[in-house]
Each structure stands twice: as structure tokens, then as C-alpha cells.
Amino acid sequence: MTDDPFIEAEYCQFTKNGQAACGDNVQIMKLDDGRRLLAAVCDGLGSGVKANVMANMTGVMSLRFLESGIVDIREGMEIIMDSLPMCSVRKISYSTFSLLDWRLGELGRIIEMGNPAYIHLRGTEEVQCVCERKIVSKHWPDREVREADIDISTGDRIILCSDGVTQAGLGSGGDLAFGWRRRGVLACAQDAIRANPDISAKELARVIAERARDIVPGGCLDDITCFVCYLRKPRLMRVLSGPPFYKERDAEFASLAKALGEEHTLVCGGTTANILERELGRRIEISMDDIRKAGKMPPAGTLRGVAKVTEGVLTLTRVTEELDDGNSAEGQPGPVSLILQMFDAHDAVEFLVGTMVNEMHQEPSMPQDLDIRRTAIRRLANILRRQYRKRVSVKFF
Amino acid sequence: MDKVKVEICCGTSCYLLGASELVDIELRLSPDIRGCVEITGRPCLELCERENIGQAPYVRFNGNEIMCAATPEKVMARIVELAGEGGSSC
Ligand code: FES
């Protein structure tokens, strides 16, 4: 299960200069244990709050239609176009969109109206679709919907953009008379993949969006959104927390701890750390610098070559709150930043939770602490799964 | 002369009871004393589970001497004492 290909779906977005809200909206939903992906990249007409609302409505509605499967998506499109408010002056008001509906092992379906055409890459080669259809809206004959079936294999990437990307630099003359265009995006993605064949979806989306933003000086002249999905071998990390229930299993626990290496292993909890030190005959290093970087939090240390090490409950609780609030690693105390970065750099997270209860926590004076570790980790696991679309497993030891 | 070894406990109980107050003791020591100590963190000194011992936070000196209810002032004073005992070579 942990080695099954993983759909990494991420995006990067910049808001038009001077606007409080982004007029583009991205919705991503994973279903069936991560085996089905639904995504929508919507670009509300104009910019600012109104565009944002329109894009958002379009994104949420189309994903609901795709998810439920009750309404055919073409009918769904009509409903969306009928229900969006209309500009009284220009008589137009809608959001353009790209939708992706794809179940692992089946053909993926892309539906686009008004957005730049998707890009499908296998390595650096562009892949053509299996078949393509054009649908003209019944109620809105000037709007054309393109539908394509695509065959995605492991290692492929799909890129969806708003026109803020393809039209970046528009009118600035020379090569950019017509903007960066789709072929500019394509070349940029190909270069990035050539330079780093394993580049993550998140990183590739960032590279493209930043290039679009910086193509001419002056920042974003339009909302910029780039979505990338990458069917990849999952990057696995392991989190060990809590001493095993049976002492006899300490050695097994330790061998699991050292299987993946320092960059991919996190040990949370002092007693757990001490067990690993004893079992592996190595010392955990926590420098004065680590202590300072942690501020008020317990510092992170290193079990060289094996794992990063942090305190348990306080740190995990704080990390869970930061994740729940959607905060990034930037500006966080050392250990919190470390853990957030590790989650960010991995697709699959395996928690190995030791279930021996600390003496301290068994005191009747602290009943609320009973089982605190298990509760904390369950909550963290759920957030990683639901909000961050990670593949998460929790095993008790 | 060996340096004075100071280990600050970085476990849950010790941090809950104020170990973070100790973060800047190194910077607060005079430069000559600073050269005589080696301060590091430890995941959990495993004293928090023991009965009949003073309160956390705990600090360990030279691998065997335990200080309970450690404060920056107490820790710094003990470092100065131990560095003095070590003679002037350090
Ligand atoms: S937390 Fe300090 S001794 Fe355990």
C-alpha cells in the first residue's frame, strides 16, 4: 500500500497587484483513499473579491457535481453558467475553468472552458490526449467546452494554469507581444524537469508561477495560478512516538527507526529517544544553538544518520495547530519548522505509536493526560490526511 | 582540564516547568567561563518519572550531579563554582 503510486496535487498562486483577494480559485479533492483526484482551477472574470467569489462558486460546484456523479458534468456546466451573476454592463460574468477527474488505473478526464489548454508531460515529452470532444453550451452558445480523455502513467505530470500565467508579460514587445503563452509555460516546465527529473508537483508549480510573476518587472498584473499533479512513487517518512508496550519490542522498534534515514525519520518524545539511543548505541545531539532556535519550545536534536528528534506532546500539539491553521514553516520555532518542512517534503507518513503509558501520565492527579499521545497523533494524522492529502497510516506498537 | 559538562533536560515535564528559561545561560556567562563549559540538551533525563526527587526542570552537571528546580541563576552559579574547582588552566 505504501508503495502504490501517489497522486501529488499542489498549486502555487499569486494575487494581482493591489487586490485583496485572488480572482482565481483552486479546489482539490481526493476520494477513495487517495485513488481518485478531482481538481478545479477557476478564473473569475475580472479580479478582486467579486472574481474570487465567482471562481470559488464555480470550483466548489463543479467538484460537487463530479463527486456526486448524479449530474452529468455537461449539465452541471450549464447549471453553473446559468447561476453565476451577470455583469449588467458587459452582459458577461462567469468564471473560466479547468477540471480534472481521474481515478488511478482509468483514463483521466479534463474539461476546460476558457482557460489555457492543459499540459500533459511524460518526462519532458508532451503527451497527446486519447480523444477530444468539443461541446457547445445549450444556453450560452458563445462558450465552448473542450473535453479530453488522457492516459496518465506513473511519472506523468499534468499542468493547469489560469491565463494570468500564459498571458504574463503581454504587450511588452519582442517575444512577449502575446504574452508568455502556453509554449512558454511548456518550455519552462521542460527545463525544470530536465534540471530535476524528480521535481515535486509543489516545486514545479512554484517555479512556473514565479516565472510568470517575474517575467516582466512590476509584479502580478493579473492573478496567477499554476496547478500541477504528479503521479509519483510516494516519498515516505516515518514518525516514531512513544515507547513500545512490550520492552521486548524495543529492538524491532529501533530497526524500524533506522530503516529510512535521517531526512525521512522523526522521533517525537524523550523516552522514545532514549530507547533508540540505547538500542542503537548512538547519542542524540542537541546543541545550544538548537536550544536557542527553539525559543520557548523544547529543541530538536539529531540522532546522526538515523533521525531528527524532538520532544513529544507539546511539539506535536503545536505542529497540529499550525497545520490546522494552514501556516507554513517560515518563522516558526526550530522544531516546529523542522517538522512542518518534513511533512511538506513527503507524500506518505507512517506513524509508529508506542503505547506504553508514561508513569507520570498515570498519576490520578493528571487523568486528562491519559492517552494524550494517542489522541494528539490521531488528530494530527487526520489533518494530514484531510487537509494536506497525505497518505497516512498509524500503527500502534 | 576537562570542560564542565552541563546537560539541560529538553523533555516535556522539564519544559512545562520552565526549562526554556535556561536558553540564554551560555550568553549570560562571562567569556572566560564560557570557554570552560560545554552546554548541551538531552531528550529526557528520565528523572521526571522518579519519585522522591525535587521538581523539574532538571540539569545534570558532569554526567552525575543533578540539579532540581533549575533556574538560570542557580545553573550559572554552579557552573562558576565547578569551573573554579577545575583550576585556572581552563
Ligand atoms: S522531562 Fe526532564 S527528566 Fe524527563
How would you describe this structure to a colleague?
The complex is a heterodimer of chains A (397) and B (90). With 397 residues, chain A is α+β, with helices and mostly antiparallel strands. Chain A folds into two domains: 6-232, PPM-type phosphatase domain (Phosphatase 2c, domain 1); 236-396, Rossmann fold. Helix content of chain A is 33%, strand content 27%. Chain A has helices at residues 48-68, 73-83, 163-166, 181-195, 201-214, 250-257, 270-280, 288-293, 313-324, 334-344, 359-362, 372-386, and strands at 6-14, 24-31, 36-44, 95-103, 108-113, 119-122, 125-126, 131-136, 144-150, 156-161, 224-232, 236-241, 265-268, 284-285, 301-303, 307-310, 348-353, 391-396. In chain A, a hairpin with a 4-residue loop joins strand 2 (24-31) and strand 3. Chain A is elongated, with a radius of gyration of 24 Å. Chain B is built from four helices and four strands. Chain B has helices spanning 12-16, 25-28, 31-34, 72-85, and strands at 4-9, 37-42, 59-61, 65-67. In chain B, strand 3 (59-61) and strand 4 (65-67) form a beta hairpin. The radius of gyration of chain B is 13 Å and the shape is globular. The termini of chain B are close together. The chains are: A alpha+beta (397), B alpha+beta (90). Chains A and B meet through helix 7, strand 14 and helix 8 of A and helix 1 and strand 2 of B.
